[in-house]
Specification:
Layout lengths: L1 E5 L6 H12 L3 E3 H11 L2 H11 L6 H12 L8 E4 L5 H11 L7 E6 L2 H9 L1 E3 L5 E3 L26 H15 L1 H8 L4 E5 L4 H11 L4
Parallel strand pairs: 1-3, 1-4, 2-3, 4-7
Antiparallel strand pairs: 5-6
Helix pairs in contact: 1-9, 2-3, 2-4, 3-4, 4-5, 6-7
Length: about 210
């Protein structure tokens, strides 16, 4: 089964993509991880990406897609894969579809639905210590307010977790990534809409049931 996970930032798609990949026995392919692995392995595309990133530039779509095509050619991805984090817009989706071809085209997409206010609550409530231990002011508060349970360090809110930044990220998602849903529907790809609010295990079961993996 070749799957794509879609949804706004903070919807939990990364967590669920990993769980479903494990359940299906297929690799979870997150483009950020894939990029780091290619750079570390010093593949041809990885080295090219490394030089680009060293200049502080964004890695072009064609390189990311090239890495993705190389990755799904590995033996562990023959039976399927779960894509997480790519494509992010319609032009990337068109390029990916062209590279995958008819023999490796996607089978389905999972769209995790969470409203904006809940997304803002989830992300803006995060607090982090300098050693990257993460808490949430409502869902997972530290034992002592403002202090890390593990090392006692002061907790802080990351710049990209501030409410105004989160709402801007959601606007970008609406403009660039949300149109992927219409694109894939127009191309006949089954899209399973899943409520992303609730217990993590229950959400996983809902996805698995929709995909007939339960």
């Amino acid at each position: 089964m070749r799957l794509l996970f879609l949804g706004p930032p903070g919807a939990g798609k990364g967590t669920q993509a990993i769980r479903i990949a494990d359940r299906a026995g297929t690799p979870h392919i997150a483009t950020g991880n894939m990029l780091r692995e290619a750079v570390a392995a010093e593949t041809e595309l990885g080295l090219e990406a490394k030089h680009i990133m060293a200049r502080g530039e964004l890695v072009p779509d064609e390189i990311v897609i090239g890495m993705l095509v190389d990755r799904i050619a590995h033996e562990d991805a023959v039976a399927g894969f779960v894509l997480d984090g790519f494509p992010r817009n319609v032009s990337q989706a068109e390029a990916l579809s062209h590279e995958l071809g008819d023999d490796r085209e996607l089978d389905a997409a999972v769209l995790i639905v969470v409203d904006d206010d809940e997304i803002v609550r989830r992300i803006s409530g995060r607090r982090t210590c300098p050693n990257q231990h993460v808490y949430h002011v409502e869902d997972q508060p530290p034992q002592v307010a403002g202090r890390c349970d593990i090392d006692g360090a002061d907790l802080f809110q990351r710049e990209d977790d501030r409410e105004e930044v989160v709402r801007n990220r959601l606007e970008v998602y609406r403009e660039q990534t949300e149109p992927l849903v219409a694109f894939y529907r127009a191309h006949g790809l089954p899209i399973h809409e899943i409520d992303g609010v609730g217990d993590i295990d229950d959400i996983e079961l809902s996805i698995a049931s929709a995909l007939e993996l339960a």
